[in-house]
Amino acid sequence: MAAELKAAGGVSSHEVTAARGMTVNIAVRRVFNVFKLRIGIVIAFTALAGIAVTPGAALPAWQVCVLGLAVLVSSASAGAFNQYYERDLDRRMTRTRRRPFVTGAFRAGRGWLALIAAMVAVSTLAAALALNPWAALYTFLGAFFYAIVYTVWLKRRTWLNIVIGGLAGSFAVLAGAAAVTPTLGAVPLLLALVLFLWTPSHFWCLAIAYHKDYAAAGVPMLPVVVGDARAARIILFNTVLLVAASLAPVWYGMGGIYLGGAVLGGAYFLKKNVELVRQPDAATAMRCFHASLAQLSFLLTAAMVDAAIAA
Q1: Which of 80, 81, 103 lies closest to 91, judged by CA?
Q2: HSE on the CB side for 4, CA within 13 Å?
Q3: Residue 22 lies in a domain
Q4: Based on the structure, what is the number of domains in the chain?
Q5: In angstroms, rounded to a whole number, what is the distance separating the alpha carbons of residues 253 and 77?
Q6: pLDDT digits (tens, 9 = 90+) for 96-139
Q7: SS3 165
């Protein structure tokens, strides 16, 4: 864009600089999009929470950074593979038809598959060398479950796709815990269960909001299979289990700060779930979707602060 303006003549240096800035911004947005870095950052944060709540000797800062980056890169590789593999589905959906592989901004080819494989290998190796084989295994399994189990094996076949695929987030917690000690304790295992239960509630809300998209693409998400009203009731039931599981770590040593975060976040998410049952439309579903993000943020932040104060 900047080169075209310069070649056209009569354009100020300020306009050329602004055009270059716009080009960079577009490129950054495309990278964030294709690697799903927003969700990758959440997953890396989840791994750090796994470190925080696991009893044991404190890890050096460099090891914490290596694990966080390894989980982020591993997650990013899975996100890129998801978009690469699903570009045919993405063309049929309003929400995803502007993704880079669909628009042609990024051209699908073997180079992308090589890059994705290299990212998985490097992130797994980094976790193994800097920490231990168990942390590396869980880092790898998080990417494997999202890219292969969820994207390739399950998404187009069954409404259980996101239920089983939800293990991808659970493995991030386990990677963090295993970085401290390969022997997993009750609290990180319970947090892994929380992530497992959180993912369906989180994603099914989005699936209600974009019911027509998934139906048009032929993807058997729960609302497409059973209808929005019944899906909303199932989401509420699952969220009750989620909130109950999020309270369980208190019986295994987590303190008042954690309890406060779990109660506040859980109550807010349940409130939005009840609203969705009463009015299972797209707008209410999106509010419920955002409430799920708030609930997880409250919970993980409270867990990390609670563990830091107790240390």
Answers
A1: 103
A2: 3
A3: no
A4: 2
A5: 35
A6: 999 999 999 999 999 999 999 999 999 999 999 999 999 999 99
A7: helix
At 195 the pLDDT is 97
Assess contact for 214 and 207: CB atoms under 8 A: yes
What DSSP character marks residue 10? S
> CA-CA distance, 181 to 187, in Å (whole number)?
13
How far apart CA 270 and CA 268 sit, in angstroms, is 5
Do residues 44 and 175 share a domain?
yes
Tokens of 133: 């084989």
The confidence score (pLDDT) of residue 28 equals 87
pLDDT digits 0-9 by tens, 214-264: 999 999 999 999 999 999 999 999 999 999 999 999 999 999 999 999 999
69 part of a folded domain: yes
How many degrees, rounded to 5, is the angle at CA 24 between CA 18 and CA 26? 105
- Count, in order, helices (H) and strands (E) of the chain: 16, 0
Question: By the 8 A CB rule, do 221 and 161 touch?
Answer: yes
175 in the same domain as 54:
yes
Q: How many residues in the chain?
A: 311
290 lies in which domain range? 185-311
Domain match, 112 and 236 both: no
Same domain, 199 and 175: no
φ, ψ of residue 154 to 5 degrees: the values are -110, -35
**CA 147 – CA 133 distance, rounded (Å):** 21
The mean-pLDDT minimum among 32-36, 133-137, 143-147, 255-259 falls in 32-36
Looking at the structure, do residues 175 and 52 belong to the same domain, yes or no?
Answer: yes
Residue 20, domain member (yes or no): no
